[in-house]
Design brief:
Structural class: alpha/beta
Strand content: 5-15%
Shape: globular
Largest sheet: 6 strands, parallel
Strand order of the largest sheet: 3-2-1-4-5-6
Number of strands: 6
Number of helices: 8
Order of helices and strands: EHHHHEHEHEHEEH
Oligomer: single chain
Length: 215
């Protein structure tokens, strides 16, 4: 029986979270403002960034916020896919395991990056902020991705790097493999009922092979 994979994007496929943090602080400091603390930035990761956006607006205005996003989206095109994700995507493609992306970012922002990485055509679907009323930790994004894959949620693995994302996947009934990033590796996932956490690519493949046989 089929199994499926739903990837988070930011921090999972590429290290865009670390990139955005650097871009924000570079723009704030250029205008004479203090850099934001990493702890404050982390509160916006994997969910709605309204509070962070308002903070930036209050310091450098609408044009400054637009400059931050423009620079972020441009520089993200220079980022490479995380090596373990590249391997995992290649494995899923070889094994005909369908894949999707569920992200709290806008689809229109990440689709150029996925195309640049050569991943866009390998995905059954991409679900983003435009598709739901509430982003992660609300489960709606994962529920839509599950419908797109047309596979029961208990047969799908979500690959996530944040607590908000893991909560969303858990709420949708998916299995969760947590693969933290540079920014999220000290987050507390103790309240998440995850399948596995920060394991190497080889162990992920063994899990998927085992589940293919069981399902």
């Amino acid at each position: 029986m089929s199994i499926g994979i739903v990837f988070d994007f930011d921090g999972t496929i590429i290290d865009s979270e670390a990139n955005l943090y650097r871009v924000i602080n570079r723009n704030l400091e250029a205008e004479g403002h203090d850099a934001i603390e990493i702890s404050y930035y982390k509160s916006s990761i994997g969910t709605d960034s309204k509070d962070l956006d308002e903070y930036i607006l209050s310091r450098i205005g609408k044009e400054g916020l637009e400059s931050v996003m423009e620079e972020h989206l441009k520089t993200c095109l220079d980022l490479e896919c995380n090596d373990h994700i590249t391997k995992l995507i290649n494995f899923c493609e070889q094994e005909n395991i369908p894949m999707a992306v569920a992200t709290s970012s806008y689809r229109e922002h990440i689709e150029p990056m996925l195309k640049n990485l050569g991943l866009y055509d390998k995905l059954v679907a991409i679900r983003g902020r435009e598709d739901v009323e509430q982003v992660k930790p609300d489960p709606a994004l994962y529920q839509l991705a599950t419908e797109d894959l047309n596979i029961a949620p208990e047969n799908i693995f979500a690959i996530e790097d944040t607590v908000n994302g893991a909560l969303a996947a858990e709420g949708a009934g998916l299995n969760i493999i947590v693969l933290t990033s540079e920014i999220t590796n000290d987050m507390d996932f103790n309240n998440i009922n995850y399948y596995a956490k920060d394991i190497p690519y080889e162990e992920i493949v063994e899990i998927l092979k085992k589940e293919q046989k069981v399902k």
